[in-house]
Every structure is written in structure tokens, then in C-alpha cells.
Design a protein that fits this description.
alpha/beta, Diaminopimelate Epimerase, Chain A, domain 1, six-stranded mixed β-sheet, five-stranded parallel β-sheet, binds manganese (II) ion
């Protein structure tokens, strides 16, 4: 019998697993990758009696592999906040899925664990750019503003680490970062004692400084579209840069297009924070697109479709009052 922990490599995925394994330690096989690598369930060969936990990756994109694992006799529990599509009814599948834009997978895990490791759900909510949820959820912890700011920075740094075209762009393999974090019950000891945090923080500052020098390629009443060059720094910062712009201009939508080495763009779309709606509608109109209402992406937008993307982006968000 094998235990598999399959999780998105971002802050939400990592903090969700961290909470679960603090509550129920287990020797498990970790399956994760860069943030966009969400076809994770197909990477394992499940067998009868295996226990699989899946965190923060859309069921709709993993459905075939999920059905196969269930068919082979594995037990699966599935925590997520992405649009799931049809959830199969199966006695060996337990789901904790909520697509409400103010919740994230780590908050669902926190509910499941009755708030035992709430502080990590706060870190994750900051990482997923849900500042209001993070602050609201943290109320019972009675944290100071300085502590909250530190948790926000931590969430953003863990999230930042997951962005890249491949693992080579990242400072840490997300499984490695999870293992370092997992030594810490208390996020503040991670912040104050782990060199990994310093590495991420410095990398983040370097990359964001470069991004902030850019001017938008397109700017309309609906929002702004930025083009980032084909470079590791831009692949790492694209998502976080989108979050920062979304927070700074909450009435506007934003798209960050990063040039891919082999042509086309990786696209991150952020709906206006004021409405948190429409990002998935834009991205789903392109072959490799998907995501949530508030934040979505396209894995590969061919260069000749930039015009169409621009049009869809502006039409969607102009009517998204
Ligand atoms: Mn998430």
C-alpha cells in the first residue's frame, strides 16, 4: 500500500499538505511540479489499497486519471477550489470542493482539521492573493499587523517559487520547499531561521524590480495587458506581478503574457478584485486555457492569437461591471 500526496506546487498546495501532514504524519510519495503542471494524477500508477490525497489541482483536468485510480482500487480524497466539472460518485472518492472565490484549498483543509493549523491557511490565502479572506480567517489568532505582514510576505514568496516554465526556472523544487517548511509548526520560525526564505525573498525583490520597469502593451478602460520577455525572471514573477497589479488597481483586469522559449505566450489573467469574475471565461476560449473566476491562465497562446486575446480580454472585462 502506497500513500501519495499530490499537490499543486504553489503556496496553497504546499500549505494544504503541510496542515494535513502535521495532523496526520505519514511517509508518502510527493507528486508536484511548477504551478502550471496540474496534470499530476496521471503521473502515478495506483494500485489496490493505495491512499491518494489530491490538493489544489482542478478535477476537470485530472478526471481520467482519477477514474483510473479509483478503478484500480485506490482510495482518493480530493481538496480543491477550482471548477471541478462533473464530480464522479464513487464510494472510494471523498471530495472537499468549494469554488467560492473567497476560499482556497488550504482553507478547506483548515475546515476539515477544525482549525488546528489555521495560521498556514492564512499564509496560503495570502499566497493565492485572497487578502481579505486571509485577514478575516486570521482574526481568532489575534496577530499584530507586523505578524500579518510577515505571513503575507511568506505566502507571496512560497507562491512566487512555483512560477516557471519548468523546474529549472524555480529556486526550489516545490517538493523540496514543502519538506523544508514541514519542519516548522510555526511559520515565524521558518521566516526567521530558514535560509530558503531569505533566498526566495531576495529573488522576489530582484524579479519584481525588473517587472515594475515595464509599461503595459495595451491599456484600456477594462484593464491592462503586459508583455514579459523570454527569461527565467519573467517566468518566475509573472503570477505575482499579476497579483500585485490586481491589488493596486482593484477595478481593472490584468493580463501578463510571458514569451515562451519555443514561441507563443504563457498567460496569467487576473479579474478585477472588485468583481473577481471573468478570468476563466477569457482563458477557456483558448485551447490551453483554464482556471478560476478570479485568476486563470493559458499555457500556450500562439503569437498570432494575441489580437484575438486582446479582443476577448477587453470585451469580457468591459461588460463585467
Ligand atoms: Mn489554490
Amino acid at each position: 500500500m502506497t500513500i501519495y500526496d499530490i499537490f499543486n506546487g504553489d503556496a496553497d498546495g504546499i500549505c494544504a499538505l503541510h496542515q494535513l501532514r502535521l495532523a496526520h504524519p505519514a511517509k508518502s510519495i510527493l507528486v508536484t511540479g511548477v504551478k502550471r503542471d496540474i496534470l499530476l494524477l496521471e503521473k502515478i500508477q495506483a494500485e489496490v489499497g493505495d491512499q491518494i490525497t489530491v490538493l489544489d489541482i482542478a478535477m476537470s483536468k485530472n478526471r481520467d486519471a482519477l477514474l483510473l485510480a479509483l478503478e484500480r482500487g485506490a482510495q482518493v480524497r480530493y481538496f480543491d477550489h477550482h471548477i471541478p466539472g462533473d464530480i464522479p460518485a464513487h464510494p472510494q472518492l471523498t471530495t472537499f470542493i468549494d469554488t467560492c472565490p473567497n476560499t482556497c484549498t488550504s482553507m478547506l483543509v483548515n475546515n476539515h482539521l477544525n482549525g488546528q493549523f489555521l495560521i498556514w491557511a492564512v499564509v496560503a490565502a495570502f499566497g493565492d492573493n485572497m487578502h481579505e479572506s486571509a485577514i478575516h480567517t486570521s482574526k481568532t489568532l489575534q496577530l499584530t499587523t507586523t505578524q500579518l505582514d510577515a505571513l503575507k510576505e511568506l505566502g507571496e514568496c512560497i507562491n512566487y517559487n512555483a512560477y516557471g516554465e519548468s523546474l529549472q526556472d524555480l529556486y526550489f523544487h516545490p517538493a523540496e520547499l514543502y519538506q523544508v517548511i514541514h519542519h516548522h509548526h510555526n511559520p515565524f520560525t521558518f521566516i526567521h531561521e530558514e535560509p530558503a526564505f531569505e533566498t526566495l525573498k531576495n529573488g522576489y525583490i530582484e524579479d519584481i524590480t525588473l517587472a515594475q520597469k515595464l509599461k503595459p502593451e495595451v491599456e484600456t478602460t477594462a484593464g491592462a495587458i503586459y508583455l514579459l520577455p523570454d527569461a527565467p525572471w519573467s517566468r518566475r514573477i509573472s503570477g505575482v506581478f499579476g497579483n500585485l497589479l490586481a491589488t493596486a488597481f482593484p477595478l481593472k483586469a490584468h493580463a501578463i503574457l510571458t514569451k515562451r522559449t519555443n514561441g507563443g505566450f504563457v498567460v496569467s489573467v487576473r479579474a478585477p478584485l472588485a468583481t473577481k469574475n471573468g478570468a476563466n471565461n477569457v482563458c477557456e476560449q483558448f485551447e490551453t486555457g483554464g482556471g478560476r473566476k478570479g485568476a486563470a491562465g493559458i499555457n500556450c497562446l500562439p503569437e498570432d492569437q494575441f489580437g484575438r486575446f486582446n479582443q476577448v480580454f477587453n470585451t469580457t472585462f468591459n461588460h463585467n461591471e
